[in-house]
Amino acid sequence: MAKKQEDARSDAPGETSDKSNLSPNGPSSDPSARETSTQSLSVDTTPSSSTAALSSSSAKKFSARLQDIRTSASKVQPLTNAQKRGFYFKAEMLWQAVQDGLPADDPDHDSLLAAIDSFESEMLSLNPVRLASSFLPRILQRVDMLVRMVTCCVFFCLMGVLTFLPMITIAPILDSLLKLVGWPHQYLTNALFQKAVGRGFLYLAGVFYTEEGKAKGGYRTPLVVLFQHGSNLDGFLFLDSFPQFFKSIGKDDIYLMPYVGWLAYVIATLPIDRRHRNEAIKQLGRATRACASGTAVALSPEGTRSKTGQLMRFKKGPFYVQAESRASIAPVVIQGTFELWPPKYFFTCPGQVRMKYLPPIDPDSLPAKVGKNKEELSRFVRRQMFDAIEDLTVEASSGGKGRNPSAAPLTWFQRALNVVSMCLFWWVVRIVWVLVTSVSDARGVSRAALAGAFLSYTITVTASLYILYCKRPASL
């Protein structure tokens, strides 16, 4: 632990990161490149004291380091996702070094941070699964997404009517009986619902995962689980993977969505209003009380989905919950979900992802400077997660255990379920067609327009069935 903490603070001005093995080309040591970067990224000021001179010297070193990283990244274009993760780590360590090494009122402070942010957003966003470049295959792949999305919706609706509603009705009685025999509160209702929602969605969507490091017998509570959040898939993965009942935190907007908000309730999601700070603090208090009472609480330290797929900077909320409940921290790293379901896709591509559970961190076992300080603890946990990301990347690149995050075709059983779902969808549309034609006859609406809409739907279903049986996976 002590060595990790020393490594996390080793990025002093002028030093290089120890993560250069993530990219084939390390930072450039060309003196001319350093001189150019100093002239282009630093602000020309005349120091009036020794402190100002030291600050200016540090700013020049930081500028040179940023230019070295940018130059190294430019030399290996196009960058793979593994290389982008390596350069992103270096850029983030430099960002933290600027925060620590330059005072906030330094004229170069804000410009350096802005330059690092610009570099990360322009060059280091991860590459998602690419859809076909030709028009017709691209349209068919979009139709495939729609078919799998409809399949999941039909599954959840049927499961809700046949399972969730009856279980919720008798849940109080079951909970009372289970508590008498020593079972955890709401185990049979919420915990099983979590597994059903997570596993059902992943299977029908065609997403599989491998995991390592998870405690098979569950975790000791109180526990705060911090997971990397790069996609809508992360929540479903965690529902299926985590070995015990937990409560999670999500934005309150999902409770306004029909049926989805009800599902969020039955799987024990606590809403949080991110638009109003005071309300968010009150709602975090609910998570703190749940954690202190012995329930694991899962949330993303980034606060929201990553727009680039990289591990974003952490918010303070999760560490407030940890400090108030004196809970242990269990970090979880997820790779591949952003590639399969980035923000611009309306549904996920089928494929394989990887999860890595890190050993729980007991803040009381850390040095007081780290364990008692939210900022230092946040930095320590983030460095641990970066190390885990590196391990997964190196294993995948060297052919070690696990697979690269990649797209994969659906199994035959999944295809059959999708076909059944589309048949159910067809049956519903047929009923709607009968009702609409009855109304149109009564009001004199042309059947030609209705027939055109019906023909369009028929073509869509035919194309979707074609793409379902196409075995060629998309490429990263």
From TrEMBL:
What residue spans carry the region label Disordered?
Answer: 1-57
PANTHER family per UniProt: 1-ACYL-SN-GLYCEROL-3-PHOSPHATE ACYLTRANSFERASE
Q: Which controlled-vocabulary keywords does the entry list?
A: Acyltransferase, Membrane, Transferase, Transmembrane, Transmembrane helix
Q: Name one GO biological process term.
A: phosphatidic acid biosynthetic process
Q: Name one Pfam family in it.
A: Acyltransferase
Write out the transmembrane intervals.
146-174, 254-272, 416-436, 448-469
Stored InterPro entries: Plipid/glycerol_acylTrfase
Any idea what this protein is called? 1-acyl-sn-glycerol-3-phosphate acyltransferase
**A GO term from the CC aspect:** endoplasmic reticulum
User: Which ranges are annotated Low complexity under compositional bias?
Assistant: 48-57
MF annotations from Gene Ontology: 1-acylglycerol-3-phosphate O-acyltransferase activity
Where does the record place Basic and acidic residues bias?
1-18
> Biased-composition ranges for Polar residues?
19-47
Has the keyword Cell membrane been applied to this entry?
no
Q: Which CDD domains match?
A: LPLAT_AGPAT-like
Residue stretches making up the Phospholipid/glycerol acyltransferase domain: 223-337
